[in-house]
Amino acid sequence: MSDVLVKALLNGEAAVCACDISKMAEQARATHEALPIGTIILGRTMAATVMMCATLKNKKDKLTLMINGGGPAGTVMATGGEDLKVKAYVANPQVDMPRAEKGGFDIGGAVGAAGFLTVIKDLGLKEPFMGKVELVSGEIGEDVAQYYLLSEQQPSVVYVNTWLEVDMTVLNAGGLMVSPLPGCGEETLAGVEARAKEIVNFPLYRMQDSVEGVLRKIFDGMELQFLEERTPVFTCDCNRDRLSRVVISLGEEEINDMIEKDNGAQIKCHFCNKAYDFSADELRELLRTAKDNRERGKNGE
Ligand SMILES: [Zn+2]
Predict the structure, then answer these.
(1) Distance 257 CA to ligand 1 centre (A)
(2) Measuring CA to CA, how many Å separate 132 from each of 19, 152, 189?
(3) How far is the CA of 165 from the centre of ligand 1 (A)?
(4) In this structure, are 148 and 86 located in the same domain?
């Protein structure tokens, strides 16, 4: 089954978004050589990001989801666009933790809950929109729900998860989000709440059925109107120019070091691990740009 994102309306009063990103999550696992906890973090974060990107309106709109929980997994980041092309990384994909109390992987412990979830939306305006909320648990789904509640004043049910095969590759990854629209009636709200347990079963049902079929099963007895079906993709849009800017941002001292000590540098893209080689001559060129930037900054230009 290929990755898919489905949008629907529930009773005409609540927006439903569901995604299966199993292929994307497996690609991310392989790219980052992630161990189980890292894989689940990547899968959950990408599922949330894909569903958030599906709310963008214009072709050039971009969205970044960043989680800094202070846990051993380190910073988690996913970024994508209106086209549902998403890339993701976790600072420590090989993070390992003792089992959680309930016996499962301790995702909240690995991510940490002593920090913030930040969403940056670049909507082509002068300044990007930024929303930042304190983390609830580091389990990602709850934290994204908190973001919607506090930063967008949009109470939402957000469920994301990733299930692994015995060999620790991805069996299933995806998510489901329900957002009541303004004026949503009590009956619809109660209906969503009553089905909370079923919503958690989304990935299991999905293994035997289409996303539409699964949604019909979960929201049995409620009216579902399917609006849209799209294909999300895990892909990186890095290039030499972008990585050059990363080198420049390291600063003059660091660049000098790379020239003098190593006579060049290999810089890897965080998101896809692609390596870019820079010769000492190329680094000298970037060093000049870094210097120009600094002097321009000093003159207040
Ligand atoms: Zn890349």
Answers:
(1) 24
(2) 24, 10, 26
(3) 27
(4) yes
Per the structure, the count of domains in the chain is 2
Query: 87: CA distance to ligand 1 center in Å?
Result: 8
Are residues 12 and 146 part of one domain?
Answer: yes
- Measure 277 CA to ligand 1 centroid, in angstroms: 14
For residue 102, pLDDT over 80 is answered with no
Residues 47, 175, single domain; the answer is yes
Ligand 1 center from residue 268 Cα (angstroms): 8
Q: 236 C-alpha to center of ligand 1: Å?
A: 5
CA 88 – ligand 1 centroid, Å: 10
Residue where one domain finishes, among candidates 210, 234, 258: 234
Residue numbers of the domain that contains 230: 4-234
* Strand 85-90 versus strand 233-234 pairing type: parallel
| Residue 29 to residue 21: CA distance in whole angstroms | 12
- Position 175 scores a pLDDT of 93
* Residue 238 CA, ligand 1 centroid: distance in Å: 4
Q: How far is the CA of 208 from the centre of ligand 1 (A)?
A: 34
Please tell me whether residues 38 and 154 are part of one structural domain.
Answer: yes
What pLDDT was estimated at residue 13? 96
Token look-up 């120009």 returns 292
- The Cα 84–Cα 185 span in angstroms is 31
pLDDT tens digit sequence for 29-63: 999 999 999 999 999 999 999 999 999 999 999 99
pLDDT above 90 as % of the chain: 82
**Tens digits of residue pLDDT in 179-195:** 999 999 999 999 998 88
